[in-house]
Every structure is written in structure tokens, then in C-alpha cells.
Amino acid sequence: MTAHEIIIRPIVSERSYAEMEQNRYTFEVHKDANKYQIKDAIEEIFNVKVTRVNTLRVKPKTKRVRYVAGQTRSWKKAIVTVAEGQSIEIFGNQA
Length: 95
What we know:
One of its GO terms (molecular function) is structural constituent of ribosome. Keywords: Ribonucleoprotein, Ribosomal protein, RNA-binding, rRNA-binding. One of the early assembly proteins it binds 23S rRNA. One of the proteins that surrounds the polypeptide exit tunnel on the outside of the ribosome. Forms the main docking site for trigger factor binding to the ribosome. By secondary structure, the protein is of the alpha+beta class. Helices cover about 25% and strands about 35% of the residues. It is built from 3 helices and 6 strands. It has helices at about 5, 15-20, 35-45; strands at about 5-10, 25-30, 50-60, 60-65, 70, 75-80. A 4-stranded antiparallel beta sheet has the order 1-2-6-3. The protein has a two-stranded antiparallel sheet with strand order 4-5. It is globular and about 50 Å long.
């Protein structure tokens, strides 16, 4: 897998924005990617030093549309800690 296949998209939420102040960034990643592959992909794409990678699987939630019950998709999340003094500009120069 290439780096751009491993890192799918950044996660935009209030919690992820709060963690950005502590140099922690949240991404949706490929389900089969391990922590070492995620670390290498982030370092290659954003040119930063990754100190820690935490991963978790997000379980699907049950949803209903009228009479039909279904589920949302399951996906994998990675919380990446970047070295002190470095940052990832996810959204360019907005802030």
C-alpha cells in the first residue's frame, strides 16, 4: 500500500481540534494498516517526526430507515502524536 492509500482523510470534530493543541492529529486510515505503516505514511506525506500512534476500530451503529434496519460502516481511526515543535497543516493556513 502507498502512503496515500493508508491515510484516507483527517477527522474533523471538536475533540480532534482540541487535541491539535497537544500535537495530536486524528485520521481515518485503511483497515489493514498497522501502526508502523501509519507512522511511515504520516512522516512521508507531512514531513514530520511521529512519536506515537494509537489506533482503534470504530464499530458500526444500528440505524433505521422506515422499516428497514441497517448499520453504518465500520472504520479504523488513528491518533498520531507529532514531535514537540512540529505541526501538521491539515487545512492549509486557515485558523
